Amino acid sequence: MTSVISLGGSIVAPDKVDEHYLEKFVKLIKEFLLEDAERRFIIVVGGGGPARAWQAAYRNVSAALGDTVNYEYEDLIGIMATRLNAQLVKALFGAYCKDDVVSDPSADYAGGLFNGRVLLAAGWKPGFSSDNDAVLLAIRFGAKTVINLSNIEKVYTADPRIDPLAKPIDSISWKDFRVITGSEWTPGKNVPFDPVASRGAEDAGIEVICAAGHKLENLRQILRGAPYTGTHIHA
Q: DSSP letter at 149?
């Protein structure tokens, strides 16, 4: 069984690296690896604080210079931050993670397998978020669900920071979910799951569970197939 986790950069490195969280996260994943010799994990890591800070610096300095912001450059800066975070998480898994950090989720793997039992992945190219990479890897390795861990516990009907009437959602179809998030992806867009990745997941019959990344007991419940707190997005 292969589980795909899209691990938000805001969980790994909200401002600086959250070492305490990473210690607990790695221990939890290793617990499942020790329990089941057939269990494998693909973990796609986002850019978090470093991506936001460096992208903001690019925008600010460009404005000061009177230059137009190039969104491809901005996206590339964020991608580099995802690779830094993913390299850190890969190192923490040691011998469990034998392959290099994946920077191209479309690349072929011999026999459709990766070496080791944990595969780390990061950003690919401009126009594609780490959520999209998680969906592509789920398709490639036959996983039917992507667990999306971020700093929100559930998807809401609207942004609860703006709309006091926004309500949490337990279950929602891809069609209705895209009404909330829109259909376009831009660097740093703040949505529960990337709209481009959402279309890919729906087309491939992949479901997504959005849950709070810091609540690791809840993640344990998800991985065991037990009742959990979060939002189930499906066909």
A: E
Give yes or no for a contact between 78 and 187, defined as CB atoms under 8 angstroms apart.
Answer: yes
Per-residue pLDDT of the chain (235 residues; tens, 9 = 90+): 899 999 999 999 998 999 999 999 999 999 999 999 999 999 999 998 999 999 999 999 999 999 999 988 998 999 999 999 999 999 999 999 999 999 988 877 645 678 899 999 998 988 788 888 999 999 999 899 999 999 888 988 877 788 888 899 999 998 888 888 776 656 555 677 788 888 889 899 999 999 999 999 999 999 999 999 999 999 8
Instruction: Show the domains of the chain with their CATH numbers.
Output: 2-234 (3.40.1160.10)
Burial bucket for residue 82 (CB in 10 Å: 0-12, 13-18, 19+): buried
Strand bridging mode 207-212 / 145-150: parallel
Q: Which residues contact 173 (CB under 8 A, 6 or more apart)?
A: 233, 234, 235
Per-residue CA distances from 104 to 36, 116, 123, 199, 234 (Å):
28, 18, 8, 19, 26
State how far the alpha carbon of 6 is from the alpha carbons of 64, 94, 122, 194, 209, in Å.
35, 20, 10, 11, 10
Contact in structure between 51 and 13 (CB atoms under 8 Å): no
Q: CA geometry: angle at 204 spanning 199 and 207, to 5°?
A: 80
